[in-house]
Specification:
single chain, 353 residues, mainly beta, Methylamine Dehydrogenase, Chain H, 28 strands, 7% helix, globular
């Protein structure tokens, strides 16, 4: 009787082991079962003249890297890419990664080259603004934090912008302020207050006389770009978040990306001056000659649209991204458009008139 029970127990144990081995064989990826092998994402389908500069989509979105900001160097030879991977600098001609700037301890939201191209500024979730030597990739200065640095923001830094003469850096933060910094010394030149929520976007006018800021409090403010004095609010956009903003090259017009399209304001009067693209827009940029505006769409329409500024007519649609296109920028010569997306890619588009 005991031997019979023991035999039954042995059979049950062996059966269980056999079932487990079979299941492991079925589910384990192998060369004989290629469908179960982890693959790279499929190649993007892009038009002629477009190329992927950076691709960290991951498989089915797993390990995807988010791109938050991109910036061209003044001579167009380099492109800085900012995101949760940090800061990368690429050669725009060869596509080669030149530098990986390490130092921020969290996502980097914004990057900007100085007018002479020697310095890169960055703002990040770690509450710091950092200045980098573009050639060596080393820190020049950290504007807040350690014993050798200048204390500044107490919230994430979402936007950075150099004045046209390169002497001043402005930064907008989650602490609801804009700070002006002396680039040469790293000293604070002033703190601009008045917004009631995080400051997401800032930009200097081409002549440097005006600074604009956009906040999650649904307001846009104009400031004197030299003294920091408050000038006026821009009204007419309602309760809409401003996702991106850009001055026209002549400084007379301001374009803003909102959930109801692209909206324009006349800088001199502060009054609305028309709109484009009656859909959610994440990013905007003017071409260097001011004749074309590029707009980047959201997850429902992850395209880039090119518009004739004078007529408001759509000139072209660039398709290739699969998620929010939250950064677009023209090359200094206007022949190329760079776009960064939350799909984990940066694409360079050759433009044809």
């Amino acid at each position: 009787m005991k031997s019979t029970r023991m035999s039954i127990l042995i059979v049950l144990v062996l059966s269980t082991v056999l079932i487990v081995l079979v299941l492991l064989t079925i589910t384990r990826p192998s060369l004989s079962n290629p469908d179960l092998i982890v693959k790279d994402p499929p190649e993007l389908s892009l038009p002629e003249g477009a190329k992927v500069l950076f691709d960290k989509r991951g498989l089915h979105g797993v390990d995807r890297r988010d791109i938050y900001g991109i910036a061209y160097a003044p001579d167009g030879s380099r492109l800085a890419v900012a995101g949760d991977i940090g800061i990368l600098i690429y050669d725009t001609c060869t596509g080669e990664e030149l530098r990986r700037l390490k130092g921020h301890r969290a996502e980097v939201y914004s990057v900007a080259f100085s007018p002479d191209g020697s310095t890169l500024a960055s703002g990040a979730e770690d509450d710091t603004v950092r200045l980098w030597d573009v050639v060596t990739g080393k820190h020049k200065r950290i504007l807040k934090g350690h014993r050798t640095t200048v204390y500044g923001h107490s919230g994430a830094v979402y936007s950075v912008a150099f004045s046209p003469d390169g002497s001043t850096l402005a930064s907008g933060s989650g602490d609801q302020t804009i700070r002006l910094w002396d680039v040469a010394t790293g000293e604070s030149k002033g703190v601009l207050t008045g917004h009631a929520a995080e400051v997401r976007n800032i930009a200097f006018s081409p002549d440097g006389n005006t600074l604009v800021s956009a906040s999650s409090d649904f307001t846009m403010r104009l400031w004197d770009g030299i003294t920091g004095e408050y000038l006026k609010n821009l009204t007419g956009h309602g309760q809409q978040h401003i996702r991106s903003l850009a001055f026209s090259p002549d400084g007379t017009t301001l374009a803003c990306a909102t959930q109801e399209g692209v909206k324009f304001w006349k800088v001199a009067t502060g009054q609305p001056a028309g709109s484009l693209a009656k859909r959610d827009v994440e990013s905007v940029a003017f071409s260097p000659n001011g004749t074309t505006l590029a707009s980047g769409g959201d997850d429902d329409d992850p395209t880039i649209r090119l518009w004739d500024v004078a007529t408001g007519i759509q000139k072209q649609i660039l398709m290739g991204h699969t998620y929010f296109v939250n950064s677009v920028v023209f090359s200094p010569d206007g022949t190329t458009l760079a776009s960064g997306s939350l799909d984990g890619t940066v694409i360079l588009w050759t433009l044809h008139e």
